[in-house]
Amino acid sequence: MSKTVEFFFDYSSPYSYLASTQIESVAQRTGAQLRWRPFLLGAVFKATGNIPPASNLHKARYMLQDLLNWTRHYELPDFRLPDSFPANSVKADRLGLVAQEKGKLPQFTHALYRAVFAEGRDLSDLGVLSSVLGQVGLPPAEALARAEAQEIKDRLRKNTDEAVERGSFGAPTFFVGDDLYVGNDRLVFVEKALRSQRR
Amino acid sequence: MSKTVEFFFDYSSPYSYLASTQIESVAQRTGAQLRWRPFLLGAVFKATGNIPPASNLHKARYMLQDLLNWTRHYELPDFRLPDSFPANSVKADRLGLVAQEKGKLPQFTHALYRAVFAEGRDLSDLGVLSSVLGQVGLPPAEALARAEAQEIKDRLRKNTDEAVERGSFGAPTFFVGDDLYVGNDRLVFVEKALRSQRR
Phi and psi (nearest 5°) for B107? Predict the structure, then answer.
């Protein structure tokens, strides 16, 4: 079996966005397979009793600067917080799974995160979602219909339940084997763990 | 004025312990002055409505592994959580200020953190505190008496209030000028900020 990093993320999570811009390079540098796994962060918080970091006003104020520091560090467009933040991400997360069926999950993820956290768009807005689907060559009406299928809904729930069962309490969550890492700022440990593994 | 990094820390905070093992090198590498500033983390949480990360059970379980990852990354003795965690740190923090009056704050800090987070000792125990004071050449009885002086109590409160006023909500907290950085995992940004400043 080849070595693998699993990346659990949600489209409403700015720190997952940051990690999404780096995780492919980490996998490439270490010769690891990358599994993109959308999950529903709100349900993770509910299941674990954890709370979003921005629930605290003092922390929220700092987070804005911290996110800007990270986007500059990674040489991305300056971080932008959408007016709609935090938006309901369930539709977007399901669309991620639809994109996955078509082999376009990474492309869809990069395009949607850019729209949301670099351009400040509302990820729960159907117009925004349709435009991003179109950008990556997925017919919007068809994808939006497929996102309502029970199979897709179940798949998102399954990813979420599995992550919580394996110890996740926030996003982004990474697994290397059974080893759990939480947060964009733990990518250095993810990379170390992958390097220390044989293929 | 020479460039300076301020390091606010509390003896009950394991992530402050981690940062305390690195901050002198960061200051040295960047030619910055380092100001060690004990503060009372419990009072910071109270003032800001923030909660300790380990209050959540799922997070607490992960934190133990995360702290072990960090001590291995920094090549320190394996992290050890004292049975007494989280212990009341007010006496220890005041002793830090007493050590500072004697020019021994860094030595006292390294010795106390090692006792607590590498050896699992109870930082609220007078025997532990006395032993650490002795190790760094401070007569324990005298230091413990001085720690009860109003001037010392006020100094700890002043450090704490100032940190909160400037945006702190947790530990460790760093300032480079007015720029706030929170967490051992933000030392990379602290170092970048110091490098980008002229003397």
Answer: -60, -45
